[in-house]
Amino acid sequence: MKGWSVFIASFGYVGYFPIAPGTAGSLAALALFAFIKWIDVTAIELAAIVAVFAIGVWAAHGTEIALGRKDPGIVVIDEVLGMLITLAVLPLSLPGIALGFLLFRVLDVVKPYPAAQLEHLHGGLGIMADDAVAGIYAHLVLRACVWMVPSWLAA
Predict the structure, then answer these.
(1) DSSP codes joined into one string, 122-137
(2) How many whole angstroms separate alpha carbon 8 and alpha carbon 41?
(3) CA 27, 31, 36, 40 torsion-angle sign
(4) Reported pTM
(5) Within a 10 A sphere around the Cβ of 101, how many other Cβ atoms?
C-alpha cells in the first residue's frame, strides 16, 4: 500500500518536481479539472472533490508514515483538492481559471484562519483540511470576481 499512497499523494509523482512542487501540483490539477469539466455533470464534479478529499487523507497519511516525516513536500494531492474546490461549479474562461489558480496559490501560502490551525490536525486530515479551506476562500473570491467582471472571467 505504501507505493499506492505515495503515488496518489504525489499526484502521479508530480510532487517530486524539484522546484515549487505545490505549484506544480496545482498546475497538474488543471488537467483533472479539464477532464471533469469535459464530462459536464455537476454531481460528478462535486463527487470528485469528495473523493479527492477522502482518498487524499488516506494517501497523505500513508505517505507521512512511509517517509517518516510530517507533511512531506512531495504530497500535492492537497493542492489538487484546493484547485478543484476553487474552480468548482463556476462557468470560467481561461482568464478566470488563471485567476483561480493565482488566488488559490496565494491563499494556500497565506493560510487565512482557520487554515493554519487545521494544518496542525494529525495525519492526512491536517494536510488536506488547510488546502480545502484555502480552496473555499479562493472559490468565494473568484465567484465575486466572476460576478463583477463576467465578460472577462466567465465562459
Answers:
(1) SHHHHHHHHHHHHHHH
(2) 24
(3) positive
(4) 0.95
(5) 21
- Residues 3-51 pLDDT 10s: 999 999 999 999 999 999 999 999 999 999 999 999 999 999 999 999 9
DSSP state, residue 70? S
Contact 29/87 with Cβ under 8 angstroms? no
DSSP state for residue 87 in the 8-state scheme: H
Are the C-beta atoms of 81 and 131 separated by less than 8 Å?
yes
CB 38 within 8 A of CB 47: no
Phi, psi of 31 (to 5 degrees): -70, -45
Say yes or no to pLDDT of 1 above 70.
no
